[in-house]
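Q: I'm writing a short explainer about Branched-chain amino acid transporter AzlC for a general audience and would like to include a description of its predicted shape. Could you first generate the structure from this sequence?
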Amino acid sequence: MRKEVRYAFQKTSPVMLGFLFLGASYGIYMHKLGFNFLYPLLMAATIFAGSVEFVIGNLLVQSFQPLTVLILTALVNSRHIFYGITMLKKYSNTGKLKPILIFGMCDESFSLNATLKVPTDLDRSYVYFYITAFNYFSWVAGAGLGGLLGGMINLNLAGLDFVMTALFIVLFTEQLKNARTQRDALIGLVFAIICLLFCNKNAFLLVTLVTLVALFSLNYLITRRKNDIN
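A: Of course. Here's the predicted structure. Afterward I'll give you a sentence or two in plain language.
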């Protein structure tokens, strides 16, 4: 499995660096809220949903509202429903690795695994697994280190989250260049911009995904019907 490890590390090393920085900022944030390093470490390991972890950290210092947490978490992570649908075929024959792949399917791991063209001499299931594992442990390690060293670090981390935004732009550009047709990607980009302009920024992603699924499903049915007629 050494080839798979090297290949996966090479592909996901930029994501890992981003996760280490963002995880550290999360750990420092939790330290500033008054929690010791075990809280961000364990929350990162068990929740593994960056934006939700930041929100829950803030909710923990307020009166606890379980229903609010449940609804908020469901809305923020609802995009994973569509990630799961997309990866059904790729993860179909991964055997014992499948539960780990499902749990660890964050935005970045999804972006890499969904578009990666694994060489034929490598076991694709283990490539997906190592990419997922590297990303997971880099986030958890960053969160733990940030929480542990939070009292010694006095940095202004505002804007650090743009690291992952920049990475997503790079991934999108690469996907656009390698796609057989760029039409669907451009349609998705246009609808995302429209939904961002007319919807709340916390809800636009869900609205965009639902709209695109409906649109592409309708297009598929129309195309299939035309082919059947012909």
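A: For your explainer, you could say: The CA atoms of residues 79 and 206 lie 6 Å apart.
Q: Perfect, that's easy to follow.
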